[in-house]
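User: My instructor asked us to take a sequence, write out its structure as tokens, and then describe one feature of it. I'm not sure where to start. Here is the sequence I was given:
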Amino acid sequence: MSDLPALPVTFRPGRTRAVLLSAAVVLFVVITTVTLLLERLGPGERLSFILTAALLSAVLLLLARPKVVADDAGVTVVNIVTGRRLEWAEILRVNLRPGDPWVFLDLSDGTSLPALGIQPGIAKQRAIADARALRALVAARSQPDSQAARGEHHG
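Assistant: Let's start with the prediction itself. The structure tokens for your sequence are:
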């Protein structure tokens, strides 16, 4: 199937990530600069403002972390503070329904895993295209005969 993306491929909300990373840097620089320019603040107060700026920036950096990485062996889902490695056969379905905040992966163990790396947010069409690409990869890679078709033999 030539319409499948080449592996490895990384899906992530690019615009959202750019906004969050930019905001983290600007927030830290502005608060730190203002803190250092205010002459009335003592060293302890300055330190507390700078640490607060660092903490707020760290939260924004965590929010920019989500991604979904597909490679020959499977899919790695990295969410805000967690990550999970899945084999292709573990993923039964890729869902992105109207109104969903991000993709959900229906898994063979009966659970559903949110994949925040594909989210409509400020780039809806990109998220729809990414969800379709991941869905096509899952369909191609999860078939029992797909390993034999790729020349992989285990045994």
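For the description part of your assignment, you could build on this observation: The beta strands are 9-11, 67-70, 74-78, 83-87, 91-95, 103-107, 112-115. Try explaining in your own words what that tells you about the chain.
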